[in-house]
Known about the structure:
Layout lengths: L1 H22 L6 H15 L8 H9 L1 H4 L1 H9 L1 H4 L3 H42 L1
Amino acid sequence: xxxxxxxxxxxxxxxxxxxxxxVLPLPIPxxxxxxxxxxxxxxxxxxxxxxxxxxxxxxxEIMPVMFVPAGVxxxxxxxxxxxxxxxxxxxxxxxxxxxxxxxxxxxxWMIRREKSKSAGQKGERQS
Length: 127
């Protein structure tokens, strides 16, 4: 029953993302709206991590299975992809490197920020 409640909560947030996608005239996918809403709900405490943790872990574990239909579609679309194969590969490689670099830099920045925060709090306690 716990998984059903957690999954329902995740689906509710995703549904709200779908609604935002239909209402707002921005070229942002509904899934991104859902992710932003979930992030805001978790950060503000509207949804506590314990309310979705187990189901979220399960969904992340089965994520590779979700790519099977897309992979099959790519294999059946080779005729359409063949003329644009090189540009698609270049764009994919460049965007992957950019995403990895930005993610790495952001993570490093957040770790440094957390370390300086904790060091500042230790210094305050010692005074």
